[in-house]
Amino acid sequence: MSTHPPPAPPGAPEKAYEPVFVGSALERLQQLYPKYPTKQALLLPALWIIQEARGWISPQNMAEVGQVLGLTPAYVKGVVTFYTMYYRHPMGRHVIQVCTTSPCHLSGCSDVVEALLQHTGCGELGTTSPDGRFTVVEVECLGACGFATPILIGDDFIEAVTPERVPAILERYP
Amino acid sequence: MVPRFSLMSDPVRVTIDGVELGVARGTTIIEAAKQAGILIPHYCYHPSLPSPAVCRMCLVEVEKAPKLMPACATTVTEGQVVHVHSEVAEKAREGVLELLLINHPLDCPICDQAGECELQDYVFQEGRARTRYADFAKRFNPVEDFGPDILYVPNRCILCTRCVRFMDDVAATPVLNVSERGDRAFIGIDANELLDHPWSGNVVDLCPVGSLVSKDFLHKARAWELDKTASICPGCTQGCNIEIDTRDDVVVRIRPRPNLDVNRHFMCDHGRMNYRWMNRGDRAEAPLRRSNGAMQACDWETALDDLATLSAEPGPVVVLASGRASVESLGFIMRLFAGRDVTAALQVPRGEEAPLAGVPDLALRVERVPNLHGAQLLGFDAEWSTAVRATEHAALTVLLDVELDDDELATIKRCASLVALTTRDDPILQAAVLTLPVTSMVEESGTYLNRDYRLQRFRQAKPAPGMARPAWWVAAAALGRVNPDVRVPGSVEDALEALTSEEWLSGITPDSVGWTGIRLDGLVAGTVR
Amino acid sequence: MGYPHPIHPSETVVLSRHFGDEAARDYAGAVERGTYKALKQALAMTPEAVIEEVKASGLRGRGGAGFPTGLKWSFMPKGDGKPHYLVCNADESEPGTFKDREIMRWTPHALIEGCAIAAYAIGAETCYVYIRGEFTEPLAIMERAVADAYANGVLGEAAMGNGPRIDMVIHRGAGAYICGEETAMMNSIEGKRGNPRIKPPFPAQAGLFGQPTTINNVETLAAVPHILNRGAAWYKGLCLGNPKSTGTKLFSVCGHVMKPGNYEITMGFPMKDLIHDLAGGMRPGRTLKAVIPGGSSVPIMNQEEAESALCDYEGIVEQGSMLGSAGFIVMDDSADMVYEIYRLAKFYAHESCAQCTQCREGTAWTTKILERILTGKGRGEDYGLLADLADNMTGKTICVLSDSCAAPVVSGIQKFRHEFEAYLSGAKVLAHV
Questions:
Q1: Interface pTM, i.e. ipTM
Q2: Which residue in B367, B475, C162, C320 has the most C-beta neighbors within 10 A?
Q3: Residues 31..90 of A with a Cβ closer than 8 Å to C: which?
Q4: Which of A37, A85, A102 faces C344 most closely, judged by CB atoms?
């Protein structure tokens, strides 16, 4: 997974930053306050709120959540870069996570990966399709080894994927 | 071997590499080993930082323990037998060193840390002679400017995390992080933040390798070319213990010297970076006396005779002294004018306080002078601008290496008779009848009294230029002419001993001050003033 | 096991009775099936009595360490006035293991009940259930179940109406296998990088937020209500092998078997029957070559060892491996052992937290060497080098992730050297990995 976001297209005007933690998103976060004794412990839930709202977590998002919770941007970044499910640059509309760890490899995940890359139009793992619809990423064990090959599309956990099933599955995600 | 038990109550007895000793309960094995004279190799451990035991270098063999134990995170237990240099422990260290080197560049020829690098030291001592990692590319990340003074070279980083823990826990400013995971990890800083904390320079000292380097020192000198001198920082009243590094008698770097009672292992950036004045070239090099309207160079004998004559004349005296003047210098100047009406003031630049949050009683202090209490106890208690104005009516004005602004200059020029003890060439000297070249604090030895009433010695780090002499000697030699009963001290140690007739210095000897200083409890308690 | 295959007659169905039964999932369905009776009973006992019952049952941690659960609970200080915490470890990321997800998505209330009983026993008012971020279905189901439990008075200020306060918080992970390590999990809940902590201090002394904490696996906690309902003696009696391994366990069998899935069997059950009978045996024309029983973090067993072993903690140790989480990765003769070991090493290198030198650099170097071997550039010295690295990675780090990387490598070279030789001699080569 790339650690640096792709450069902004030349001539793109700088947009004013829209905060995430306003309205219902802020309410959702505040509802969690009584459940933890420290504000710091709200960081992972807060990062999930950002990613659910925006699809990825930008440096400005990290600064914002730092301000809300009283943490430095450097600290937030250290946490964000530790966890692989937080994306640090824009992804396709639907992110497909496919497991390739040994148990799934034994169960034929390589063919599933090929089928996914082919039918989504993503050239290789970790890239977004030209139409911006899909990004296919390779992940480690998804904890469904007996239901191989599992994939996650967004929040949908789909078990027992085979190359034959791939086109029909992808059709559900416009 | 006779067991060494300390005189504490209830010591815990341990044996480390065959050395038996008793240590206080709660001591870690790594600290106990130091007391036995054994250094257990380590990276991430530091006595002034919380211990995370991540580098795994300090693993030692402990009899009856199932695994090797990290010496920095294991406290001693009664009867413990520890082996630091057993085969198993040495093999473990060799393993850690090999793994640290696989992604480490062969930078020694261009790396500032060479010669004072803990990776070099331990690899040379205990590492493998040859690499087995020949097939693969090393991990590469570009150098990052953490700004203002610090560069981060990720390729050399061994991820000991001392820098992160220092900023987090000691500086209480979490501006550094560990980014990424696994062998992709590196030290990160937010793009919009700078490593500009007033104490951030310490991360360069803490870094065991050349990963965090000072731009100021970059490529300036090799570690083995440096002469190191124990000194006291003249930057403020805290009195941090420092080490002055010189190369061919030019000061190239200042670093902290450990003193657990004053500054632990740290010093602030103001003190660290404020050394260029120590290398000034525009020095006063010979005594000058006014003769037939012009200043003429003369020898010390003549100059001291002049000074003695001026000192013996009647009338008020005003002394304006540099904040960096030592106890010895200020003490003998006051003795020279004893019995006269003296107004004495110390020049004290001021600035903002900058504490180091994680160490109690440690800060860059408002008064940017090292000997404020010493000066006050010796009689330098006048207010500065009052003293400056008093020069108009003084019979004799003595300046000791002060820096004057235009207004002060104009006032003082009107004084009756001006003697200047000075380190450098200065416009004020045009108005003097006698200018005497003196050494700066880095060219002489002496003592300072810090804000906590701790008397500390500093040592001469570079030779005096020209005919310059310490100000204490100038004053004492003149005094010896005025009063033949006074013995002129032959050394700075004698000078200090001569001053111990002052109540607050009674009983002090240079040895009792030592190189970590001595707290003058009478002053602290207020029983002595 | 009930899902997706019918229950096999040799299974001992306790935890998995309702797997596949959607009606069992919601509060009403769960209560109908007896959930929360045990909690009610526990709240009428003293916490000490509950701990004694669990101790007597012989229940051991089902997350992989196999530590006696009742003993672990008894480490919590009594009457210290500090807040106590229970953490339910639902991070399930060990390759080959997929049992906790089933417990959560079919019987969430059974898990809530087990957590509540444990919380009561250790004096905790708050239980955090740390569910890995990828488990979107269990997360949704558990959130709903916890909300229903609150709505029906099971949880909250007065558990079951007249008990002490018991709160439950679902905490979502974000993609880090290492957070399944108990001290790393605590750091993750606290909003930090998931770095394991050094021990001492132990969690029972200073754990989550610095307070006394117990961390238990999902399956361990799910067993607790059954122990209370049917008695410790019953649980202890469920034992076909070593008396120190009691009760039932969900064995996740995957890889080269006809019927991969979870099978609930009594401890001490013959491994041969688990693989060849319950899990449907080999695919047509294939023979068993290797099994990694523990998830992947344990030595690889060859066919002979696998077919001789009894499925309990001691039985598998006798055959040179460890039970761990009982995530059985089964490989037949078509499996490329060198590739699978490489892919496991790559997994560990990806998941290393970066604290300890041996793990951070050693797992990555091991992976690179194995990749080099697979692509035809292996050398004889590589055996010694891999063995040296494995030795450096074993017993020298804060946690056992690096040991887990070393185990399959060392056992793989020991037992399948001929496969490595095929690559080294050039008889076999991969264009790329």
A1: 0.95
A2: B475
A3: 35-38, 40-45, 47-48, 69, 71, 78-79, 82-86
A4: A102
